[in-house]
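Z., the sequence and structure:
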Amino acid sequence: MSMEKVKTGINGLDEILEGGIPRGSTVLITGYSGTGKTILGIQFVVNGIKMFNEKGLIVIAGEDIERLQRSMLQFGWDLKRFEKEGKLILIDVTSVKIGVPTGVEFTEFQLKTTDIKQLVLTIYNAVKQNNIKRVVIDSIPNIITNKDDIQKIRTSLLTLCILLERFGCTTLMVTDIPEGSEKLSTYGVEEFVASGIIKLSLEKSGGKWIRKMQVRKMRGTKHKLDEYIFEIVENGIKILEKIT
């Protein structure tokens, strides 16, 4: 029996993944700051809403939600409108961390504390009650409160992955590669709970900067291991060519 694939709707990425991400997978989106990780995550959810009639949920941690909503309008992605239409739930962790009110639509799914167990439960309830099929968590380092307890981080992330998989959710978890590090993630545990890894990078070549994408791992599907050049254009990410 072949596994159902979830199309990202991102120009070129579904071809690299030979049809899309296996349904229920948790995929780590990793890279240095400024490589396009947030755009990739939000584009995945927005395409689900617009192209495939799949509701989405985005956990925003580490960025002001109103600033994010404004910046996404440059791609034609009106997150507020999707909320009002009941197609998208935004969970605003940033406002809890800095102690300011939030302007999200679904206030019943807003956190009172930054405890990761509470966040996992809130995501679970939102997904269960609203038939959510695509989830983005942006980002893992910004939802972790006790940064010293690696085992607790791993257990919390694993719990979240298992719960979302049971509901047939396909999840993108954004994490950071520390500058100068050889690791694939901030804590070195994220890649072990994820069933897929997509690495983004920004490098100087021949006097100009190029963006590169590589699918490092994806359980349940064949995929190409080549690096690809991509651009961020007016409607999001577009993959241009394989690096030979």
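The two ends are 34 Å apart (CA to CA). The chain has one domain: 23-196.

Let me know what you think.
H.
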